[in-house]
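Study this chain:
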Amino acid sequence: MHERTTDAAETAVPSPEHQGRSYTPGESGQDRAMTSAEAGRLTGRPAASREPFGRAERVQLTVLAGMFVLVAAVLSAGAIAFTNLSGQILDLRAEMREEIGGLRADIGGLRAEMHQEIGELSDRVARLSDRVTRVETLIETHVVPASSARDPAGP
């Protein structure tokens, strides 16, 4: 099926007459790799860009990267703010506990002072009651006549 139609001897490329002479200038860079533009010209297709992304893709990637950085910055700022607020709340709670403890101590002191004053007032009222009773007794026995005196045993 795949038969040769020509002889190998007939298809051989003849060597150039001047072996030392090059078809391109000496400093042409024959040893360098072919660029995509050169390859495109040779194959008849448009030249492929050396960059993997076009301008639109680069703009989109730049916008996405910027958004990612922005989101990361916002999240970082939020985390820092949350940490600061948490610390401040804990400090406020500690201060409130101290204040409440101080208020409880003050209330306890006021309560004890009030009980002491109530006890003293009660003692004064008891002494006053005793004096009033003595005065009543004196009045009944010395000032009021015996006929109008009240009977201590009751009516």
Observations:
- The mean pLDDT is 79.
- The chain has three helices and no strands.
- The CA atoms of residues 37 and 47 lie 4 Å apart.
- The two ends are 156 Å apart (CA to CA).
